[in-house]
Amino acid sequence: MSSTTLHVTELSGSRREMGEAHGLAHGELIQRSIEVYDRLFFDFVGLSWQQARREVGRFERMIERGFPEILDEMEGIARGAGVELADILTLNCRSEISLTRASGGCSAFALARGGTQWLAQNWDWRADQLHNVVALDIRGEQAAPLVSIGEAGMVAKIGMNAAGIGVCLNAIRSRICGEGLPIHVALRKILECPDMASAVAVATRDRVCAPAHFLIASAAVDGERGQAVGLEVHPGEPGRLAPERGVVTHTNHLYARGEACQVEDFPRPDSRPRLAQLDQLLRERLPADAVVDEARLFEILSDHQGAPLSICRHHNPDQPPEERMETLFSVVMNLDARRLTLRHGKPCGNEDTLSLSLTD
Q1: What SS3 state is found at 19?
Q2: Within 10 Å of residue 85's Cβ, how many Cβ atoms?
Q3: What angle do helix axes 57-66 and 70-81 make, rounded to 10 degrees?
Q4: Is residue 165 classed exposed, middle or buried when 0-12, 13-18 and 19+ CB atoms within 10 A define those classes?
Q5: What's the CATH code, domain 10-98?
Q6: Does residue 2 surpass a pLDDT of 50?
Q7: Is the C-alpha dihedral spanning 8, 26, 211, 197 positive or negative?
Q8: What letter does residue 225 receive in the DSSP assignment?
Q9: Which of 65, 194, 227, 293 is the most buried (most CB within 10 A)?
Q10: Is there a contact between 186 and 214 (Cβ–Cβ < 8 Å)?
């Protein structure tokens, strides 16, 4: 799928104004997303959409405690799309509802080379969500401008802000769900943070109610080099992954030592081989003295070793239909240049990119 089908949606103003503009621009895609998750919830946890909606009250209370202002934006999205707030809450809490049994196959890495801090990842999910991907350029009244690539009706997923903070996401399949911010709400709060310390504090102070991996990085500030950390978040103290030779990598299993070891996860068999392949590719192709650009990082994300369960994931007819995951988009972020480059669909053989800059 070419990125020419994906346009940037600009949102500005108050929370409610931004939400309403989001809902108006993507009302049809939001309705389609609801249909996709209606099927997914039934496939994985045996819930109808209406039953899932009844579960979100407890998550709304968590949001009210940790990030209440985002509820105004969700209400705006609902109004613009012609749905109810409960529908938008359910979309934004879909990980907490479904990840007890469903997880994607995302591969993510942070890379520091030549004084530049990079973030990159493939987002793998069910193919029926491909056309519901949206690119949001958010310039609200309460935070620095940010860009987020995610799903229609959801407040954030993968992205960066004008302060040079970026975040990637890896799904973790686990039965744990406690107190804290829902995953996608926490991602938006991180994207509104002015610095690395406050971004990390979302995981360590606010906490996240279900396990996931957040790969957070920052651009150079005041002569100090950029930073990166992998945080295996959950309701307790997150596990931390520090860079090794400027690199942090992650797929879909927990492996940080410390508190996160107490969390039980249920990764798919391909998660560890993908991580090993990602580490090998970065070590061999992009050593410490390598010259790095977006094209070289998309080459890493296009790797097919172990196909069809590879870093670049394609249709696998041998899996049950409800288990089939494919790469739906790839993102490379140059945090120092405040530039995000997107390939909508699989990165291999797809040189048509969409570039978003926050330096204007």
Answers
A1: helix
A2: 17
A3: 130
A4: buried
A5: 1.10.10.2120
A6: no
A7: positive
A8: P
A9: 227
A10: yes
Which pLDDT band, with edges at 50, 70 and 90, does 261 fall under? low
Domain 10-98 and domain 107-357, same fold? Reply is: no
Q: Are 84 and 31 in contact (CB under 8 A)?
A: no
Residue 143 and residue 92: Cα distance in Å, rounded? 20
Non-local CB neighbours of 88 within 8 Å, separated by 6+ positions: 30, 74, 75, 77, 78, 81, 153
Q: Shortest CA distance to 184 belongs to which of 326, 265, 101, 89?
A: 89
CA torsion angle 299 158 108 265 (round to 10)? -150
**In the structure, what pLDDT confidence band is assigned to residue 308 with cuts at 50, 70 and 90?**
confident
The structural domains of the chain, with segments of one domain joined by +, span: 10-98, 107-357
Q: Residue range 252-279: average pLDDT? A: 89
Residue 4 confidence (pLDDT): 46
In the structure encoding, which two tokens stand for residue 109, read together?
A: 């890495």
Query: Nearest-CA neighbor of 151 among 32, 71, 16?
Result: 32
Residue 197 has which token pair?
């310390």
Q: Distance between CA 211 and CA 261 in Å, rounded?
A: 12
Residue 44 pLDDT > 90: no
Where in 5-98 does DSSP place strands (E)? 8-13
Tokens of 253: 């299993």
The CATH code of the domain at 107-357 is 3.60.60.10
Q: pTM for this structure?
A: 0.96
Tokens of 187: 């991602």
Alpha carbons 124 and 327: distance in angstroms, whole number: 4
Q: How many CB atoms lie within 10 A of CB 65?
A: 12
Report CA-CA distances (Å) from 224 to 117, 180, 219.
Answer: 12, 32, 9
